[in-house]
Amino acid sequence: MSIDDFPAGVTSSTCGVFQAESCRSDRRGKLSVIVVLHNVIFYCIATWLTLGCSFLQGGYQWRLPLALQLVPCIALVSLLPLVPDSPRWLLMQGKNKEGLEAIRRYLGKGLSIDDSIVQSEYHSITGALLIERESQISFTQVLARRDRSSHLKRLLLGCGGQFMQQFGGINALNYYFTIILINNIGMDELMARILTGCNATSYMISSGLCFWLIERCGRRVLMLSGLSLQCFAYIMVAISIALLGSAPFQSTIRQANIRLFQWGIVAVSFLFFYYAAFGCTWGMVPWVYQAEINSLSMRSVGAAAATATNWLAGFICTQFTPTGIANIGYRFYIRTNGWIVFAVFNLTFIFVCYFLYPETAYRTLEDLDVYFDRDSNHPTIIPIHDKVSKQSKRPLEAIEAEAVRVAATKAVGAKGVTEHVEDIDGTV
């Protein structure tokens, strides 16, 4: 493990949680997309930088890329002290004044602490903390599913989203895209590197489109449509590479070269198509979803577990991909010993998302606590007729529950509601 792995892991686990806890529900998806989009932007820059540095001689080939990483690092370290903590974290720590001020700052410009929007948000959060406080539990009890907030189920949903992202096949292409173009499609190294940069650019553009799609379409629509398109892309890549492999059997060398060129274009086109579909759907949604789905007391634990799942699943995919390509060629993209690999993973995940993953768009984080409460009428497996779990607009039951929560909090006051609500470290 390199020295930069630890801060990278901490950052990827923390940023999404901080973003989710600091945003209004109608902005949370868009702002979270901006955070993840920076990762794709710098991936694109790194791809072109790799191509450029390949023409350099000596130590500049590796010193220049390493030195340039200091630029965004210095900018972040300089600006982070100006950013207030998450209001939900501050209230949970008993810092009422700081939490109220953070809410005021994050809700928009020109608001005062006494503004009705600020006070309503404050009472909604503290009311949710008061409800959770009534069921202080240990992490052992969470694993035993004895809590009222379905912490384990929510944690598994966050981890499952990251698992599906990786086993949808993205890093199997990310790390070996150039090798695939050279070994499986027959391109020369320079053209393969140029196309890798072009693909990274289109990937960045499609990821940016998610900024407009994630709130309008909702998380579920993007997940389901993304899986369908990714499955289709993998099937078409497998078919085109299979037909490309039969080119040498043509009657003349000219016909063989034409066939290689034609099916090579088809294969590359659908590889680009896969990245475009992934970028505006699964490239963004799992990172947003894992930060939204967990309760306040489990959000940091859930985000850390989901991020660890992402890295672990990505490691597994990157380990078996080279062996698969070398030993079974085009069939690696669609089947091994009669079983479909990435294409069927994507197809299977469609049913998983449809029946297990509720919509989180336009819900406050406290709305999701109510949805997963053991006294709610929402089962683990989402019925086909359950509109509340699927609609992208904020459901009426969430609005009514918030009104009741705010009224109750105002009635009893804020005394004691900012204590830590559920002990997940093993003590009660």
UniProtKB/TrEMBL annotation:
Keywords: Membrane, Transmembrane, Transmembrane helix, Transport. Its main location: membrane. It is found in: Membrane. The chain crosses the membrane at residues 31-50, 62-83, 155-182, 194-214, 221-243, 263-289, 339-357. It is a multi-pass membrane protein. GO terms for molecular function: carbohydrate:proton symporter activity. Residues 1-361 form the Major facilitator superfamily (MFS) profile domain. Coiled coil: none annotated. Belongs to the major facilitator superfamily. Sugar transporter (TC 2.A.1.1) family. This is Major facilitator superfamily (MFS) profile domain-containing protein. It comes from Penicillium citrinum. The lineage of its organism: Eukaryota, Fungi, Dikarya, Ascomycota, Pezizomycotina.
